Amino acid sequence: MEPEINSERLKTLLDGINAFGRVKDGGFNRTGFSDADMAVRDWFAREMEADGLIVSRDGANSVFGRYGAADAPAIMVGSHLDTVASGGAFDGSLGVAVALECVRAMKEAGFAPAHPIEVAATSEEEGRFGGMLGSQTIAGLVTRDWLESAADADGVLLTDAMRAQGLEPKAILSSARPKGSVRAFLELHIEQGPVLEREAIAIGLPEGATGIVNLHVRLTGIANHSGTTPMDMRADAFAGLAEIAVQIPDMIAASGSKDARITIGKVELVPNHPHTIPGEAVFTVIIRDAREEVMRGLQARFGEVAGAAARKHGLSLSIEENSFIAPVAFDAGLIDMLEAEARRLNLPARRMISGAGHDAQTMTALCPSAMIFVPSRNGISHAPDEHSDWADIEKGAQLMLAALIRLSAG
Ligand SMILES: [Zn+2]
Fold first, then answer.
1. Which of 37, 81, 236, 365 is the most buried if burial means most Cβ atoms within 10 Å?
2. Residues 294 and 381 in one domain
3. Is 330 strand, coil or helix?
4. Same structural domain, 263 and 403
5. What is the pLDDT of residue 325?
């Protein structure tokens, strides 16, 4: 008997996860180390124990269930159980549910993997404390300094949030998996974008995840009376900002790629008053692309355009780089294998780039990693309206099962 995805069983499992943290607006609150996040992990661990898996937890409170030998290097498969505040029913939880369903299908069919399969339900992926704590712990990327200083938007320290739940934060520093102990990491996740739905393709195979440059920009002119200052005697910081913003499509055309994005997301005008010419515009610029040289090219282009706009409007300009996250490439061999399995199963699939961050990109620091995307209705995520069609989910789960059978067969 060939292992087969049991769609009803998978639905029941996903519903079981989403019984935790449900809120009035229809969304889910399972932020990292909240009571609902702790409770869903206990429940999920009991589910895996009932399946006869070897269940364990690490210092970050990620939960694991192993099918096969206890000590041999494993194929790890999973995603995260935490959500953003008022998040959706699929982000993270779907990948965890699919991982366990694949193992259940194998067990039911009597398929014994030559290499063990380890279901992973990672913790704190959504970055309440500014990282991807679960996968960073597994990959050994958490430093003592970061651990001790990490805090959420309300100023709650990660260490305090963990201790309030009876967890010892220091255990994170000794929870890294040794190199070679994880043969590969696979994660199924919703796309969180509109591309697959628009093209009516059930499966996306990300070749990598975009990097992020975060710039802090300040244009300084002269705040003055909106009535008495003639139009040709102004140093209007907002006019400079507008002149820069309108040229973003040209910057992308000149120096970008199809994956490039530039976003001005947060703006403050000073003094921000209806009757005053803005003396200062302070804003963020986020530049994303799948290739570092393209990101740097766009950053340089942005500097030139901003400089010219500042001169034209009589403004001074400062640009600070707040942070730089390099793009990540997923494992070419795993992507080829997923593509070949999708073809064999007659499942339409397309290669793409992930514009969002995922555990799988952190895991590339430890082992070859790859992902399967399924479509998101209207591209919506991190909101109660988040939805994926069950027909697409089934296809994604079938591909994951086929991939795990291939990888675990030796
Ligand atoms: Zn996610």
1. 81
2. no
3. coil
4. no
5. 85
Does the residue 2 lie in any domain? no
Residue 273: the pLDDT is: 97
Indicate whether 1 belongs to any domain. Answer: no
In angstroms, what is the span from residue 264 Cα to ligand 1's centroid? Answer: 23
Whether residues 96 and 129 fall in one domain: yes
pLDDT higher than threshold 80 for residue 249 = yes
Mean per-residue pLDDT, 337-351: 98
Ligand 1: distance of its center to the CA of 375 in Å?
A: 13
pLDDT digits (tens, 9 = 90+) for 85-100: 999 999 999 999 999 9
Say how many Å lie between the CA of residue 81 and the centre of ligand 1.
9
Q: Which residues surround ligand 1, an ion (CB under 5 A)?
A: 91-92
User: How much distance in Å is there from the Cα of 107 to the middle of ligand 1?
Assistant: 27
The pLDDT tens digits of the residues spanning 138-168 come to: 999 999 999 999 999 899 999 999 999 999 9
Any domain includes 242: yes
Kindly tell me if the per-residue pLDDT of 80 is higher than 90: yes
Distance 358 CA to ligand 1 centre (A): 6
Binding residues for Zn(2+): 80, 91, 126, 189, 382
> Domain check: are 140 and 252 in the same one?
no
CA 307 to ligand 1 centroid distance, Å: 38
How far does the centroid of ligand 1 lie from the alpha carbon of residue 190, in Å? 8
Query: Do 234 and 201 share a structural domain?
Result: no
Please report, for the domain that includes residue 384, its CATH number: 3.40.630.10
On the question of pLDDT at 410 being above 80, the answer is no
Binding positions: 80, 91, 126, 189, 382
